[in-house]
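Throughout our pipeline, every protein is held as a single compact record rather than as scattered files. The remainder of this section carries one protein's record, kept here as part of the documentation.

===
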Amino acid sequence: MNKKQRNALITLLVGAIIWFAPVPEGVTVVAWHLAAVFIATVVGFILQPLPIGAVAFIAITFSTLSGLLKVGDALSGYGNSTIWLIVCAFLYSRGFIKSGLGKRIAFGIIKAIGKSALSLGYAIAFSELIISPATPSATARGGGIMYPIVRSLAGALGSEPNETAKKIGTYLMQVGYHCDAVTCTMFVTSMAGNPLCVALAAKTLGVEITWMGWASAAIVPGLLSL
């Protein structure tokens, strides 16, 4: 039995144990069974016997086939425009990384204005600002696009981890980290959690936040922070 098969078995066992366990007083059978599916799904997300999307799809399918959820209820989340905004943004993000467009933009900006240590910092900040609306994952942007660039810049300038780290590498890494954190807050599509905040505001407070509304509110403090 390989690792993925073992993880799949663990996920199913967790769900089965909760499913067949005695139902607590005051809890309906349907609610208890939904809890079993939910907990097993979370375990599946952690152990990943299959990709996360596949685990979620299996959980939704099982919930509908077993009668725990109506098809309309199970798929209601996919009717939310915010969900599709996240999906589309992640597709663009993958294209940004796979095509190398993000790196070309960053290197172009660095070539144009990166003439000193300080201007290199601003070049990193400006690169983050330009590509952040199209990369809704801070990890994808900071780790997949900017980190390799910043790491290469530090190495090219003779700054490596340990002995020569403080020559310029520490500074560039700190700039990259903080700029990634700042740009996360500036656009709805610059971090995966932002569209969820938009949906939460709409459902709980009745406040509709548009992409431009978010950007116009965040642009001034964001630019000042950069």
Notes: The radius of gyration is 23 Å. The mean pLDDT is 85. The first helix runs from residue 3 to 20.
